Amino acid sequence: MSLLTILEDIKPELSALEEELQQWVKSPSPLLSAASSHLLNAGGKRLRPALAILCARPFAYQRGPAVRLGAALELVHMATLVHDDVVDCSILRRGQPTVKAVWGDQVSLHAGDHIFARALMCIATIENPRVASVLAEVSVKMSQGEITQILTTYDPDQSVRDYFKRIRYKTALLLSASCELGATVGRASDRAVQALSRYGYFLGMAFQITDDVLDIVADASQLGKPTGSDLQQGIFTLPVILALRRDSGGQRLRELLAQVSESEILSESLEMVRASGAVEDSLETAQNYVAKAKACLHVLPPCEHVNVLGEIADFVGNRDF
Amino acid sequence: MSLLTILEDIKPELSALEEELQQWVKSPSPLLSAASSHLLNAGGKRLRPALAILCARPFAYQRGPAVRLGAALELVHMATLVHDDVVDCSILRRGQPTVKAVWGDQVSLHAGDHIFARALMCIATIENPRVASVLAEVSVKMSQGEITQILTTYDPDQSVRDYFKRIRYKTALLLSASCELGATVGRASDRAVQALSRYGYFLGMAFQITDDVLDIVADASQLGKPTGSDLQQGIFTLPVILALRRDSGGQRLRELLAQVSESEILSESLEMVRASGAVEDSLETAQNYVAKAKACLHVLPPCEHVNVLGEIADFVGNRDF
Question: Could you tell me if B89 lies within 8 Å of chain A, comparing CB atoms?
Fold first, then answer.
């Protein structure tokens, strides 16, 4: 099932979200407006807002606050993407040139800061004080995750554990916060908030692993950016780390990875990782996280919205974009 | 009078502030900790926290919240400085190598994000909701000011009005917010909050003008960075804009400024600006803002702390570092 079909139920909310987001990133400075809305206009799955809205719905749901929270989450996420593209020198994202590619480092840096400051404005309009403190803490950890990623660049000896910690900080905590805060804004019980926070965390781990697998196996057209973008920059993800640990080929792959920034070597490295069986093992790990995520939903009152959360988990485990 | 002497009265608060700041920028990642505390350890005037504390003191003063607010303000300020040094490719600040110079663009970008996220954490612990909304709005406008600065780089036709708008966004609004929020946290009357907000704004304008004059006239040892750093990057400030408008020399200066990034041309340009009388005119403008700032203090109940605010205004008008 496509994500759009799964999210059919909250389509009106997602339309309202788009309008809100457009308002938030506007600036009296035309350049800042253009740079800040560029990524927004390139589309995206809006997974974080969707999770927040879906986690609020089974409880004392009010559309306004849930959509507002969704906007804050997407703004925080977009601010990090704009900065990440500067750090990673990325030229394409979501099939469009990045802010960095169009306007360069200086404008991108300020556009990212602007979007984050807009997130802060948005958060300040949400009455629940948990929102600010949770998102602040997650933002701190996301920076920590990014720094760890820089430190482990081109390191063939990093462990699977290092990788899990990194993606937890980089990705899973914000998805966890999206679910936790959605439930909080919906005034769910502490037990439900905790269950949804854990659901979001496991979902986030699965999401990042499938993202990392797609970097190795998907077409550029599916990805909206070149295949192996991460690998080429020396970011070694789960399939690469697992392939390095194979008896056959591990040593050869290690040699290749030292020069993986060259495109011929990149192709050969991608081939080796694909042939090693490490992709299948990674997807199995992702499936384990999907199962854990779905198990968290059992404590919630069964309802249509909780079913949708289960479908999202399945989608994340099987997605091809 | 030195700033340290003026601030003698709130020395215990400023010591408590330093300890708080050290706590906030710490990270379990040693690299992120080092990069984030680097600028903090290089010192600085702590003008924004000092203003916040002094504006809280005449009212229902409580040290804890005032110092916490001061920490939030300094963290926001430091986050922008770390990013500005990336954008401006600055090597020295406060006499020390910048974060960018020591760790490069990637780490600096994340260190700036980390410090801003820490500011958010700090703000989330302050119970007054005005703090988050005012600082969010100021942060948005600071990004806007920075973008305007990029857009006006090397533009000899920018007006004095353009300049004033730029420094209002870049600098004056955060100083205004420091005073306004200090008074707010001190539970001052609306009238006093407004007067102090205006005081901070005028002070901020004077502060940035003297800063810009110092870039032209001060020694590298006073500045903690090379003389003419701004000018060399094509950032034309009040003394330069005024010098360009002189009948004698304006045309020659305009020609020089097109190539001011070369160090010989920089020296000659600095000489021309200094000889034009534009420095004196700029300082007079700064003094006008100082007078306006001090006039705002008249509506406040006369007390020792308000006197200190007057002394700070005089210091800002006459400072040589």
Answer: no
Q: Which of A120, A125, A129 sits opposite B120 (nearest CB)?
A: A120
* Strand stretches in chain B, DSSP E: 92-93, 96-97
Q: Closest Cα to residue B80, out of B123, B119, B33?
A: B119
DSSP B205-270: HHHHHHHHHHHHHS-HHHHTS-TTHHHHTT---HHHHHHHT-TTTHHHHHHHHTTTTSHHHHHHHH
List the single residue in A with minimal CA-CA distance to B88.
A106
Decide if A124 and B132 are in contact by the 8 Å CB cutoff.
Answer: yes
Q: How far apart are CA A291 and CA A153, in angstroms?
A: 30
| CATH T-level topology, domain B3-318 | Farnesyl Diphosphate Synthase (1.10.600)
Of B55, B268, B234, nearest to B151 (Cα)? B234
pTM above 0.90, yes or no: yes
pLDDT tens readout for residues A220-243: 888 888 899 999 999 999 999 999
Tell me whether B23 touches chain A (CB under 8 Å).
no
Nearest to A32 among B112, B116, B144 (CB): B144
Tens digit of each residue's pLDDT (9 = 90 or more) over A158-177 = 999 999 999 999 999 999 99
Residue-wise burial string across B171-197, b where 16 or more C-beta atoms lie within 10 A, e elsewhere = bbbbbbbbbbbbbbbbebeeebbebbb
What pLDDT sits at residue B247? 80
Nearest CA in chain A to B105: A87
Cβ A143–B83 below 8 Å, yes or no? no
A173 vs chain B: nearest CA distance in angstroms? 15
B39, B78 in Cβ contact below 8 A? yes
Residue of A28, A111, A144 lying closest to B27 (CB–CB): A144
Question: Which ipTM score applies to this complex?
Answer: 0.93
Distance CA B280, CA B297 (A): 26
- Contact of A151 with chain B, judged by CB distance below 8 Å, is answered with yes
pLDDT of residue B321: 67
Residue ranges of the domains in chain B? 3-318
More confident residue, B311 or B1: B311
Residue A27 predicted with pLDDT over 70: yes
Residues of A in contact with B147 (CB under 8 A): 29, 31-32, 107, 110, 114
* pLDDT of A321 higher than 90: no
pLDDT at position B249 is 80
The three state secondary structure string of chain A is CCHHHHHHHHHHHHHHHHHHHHHHHCCCCHHHHHHHHHHHHCCCCCHHHHHHHHHHCCCCCCHHHHHHHHHHHHHHHHHHHHHHHHHCCCCEECCEECHHHHHHHHHHHHHHHHHHHHHHHHHHCCCCHHHHHHHHHHHHHHHHHHHHHHHCCCCCCCCHHHHHHHHHHHHHHHHHHHHHHHHHHCCCCHHHHHHHHHHHHHHHHHHHHHHHHHHHHCCHHHHCCCCCHHHHCCCCCHHHHHHHCCCCCHHHHHHHHCCCCCHHHHHHHHHHHHHCCHHHHHHHHHHHHHHHHHHHHHHCCCCHHHHHHHHHHHHHHHCCC
Which tops the pLDDT comparison, B137 or A91?
B137
Q: What is the rounded average pLDDT of the residues B247-267?
A: 91
Measure the CA–CA gap between B67 and B17, rounded to whole angstroms: 6
A3-309 has which fold?
Farnesyl Diphosphate Synthase (1.10.600)
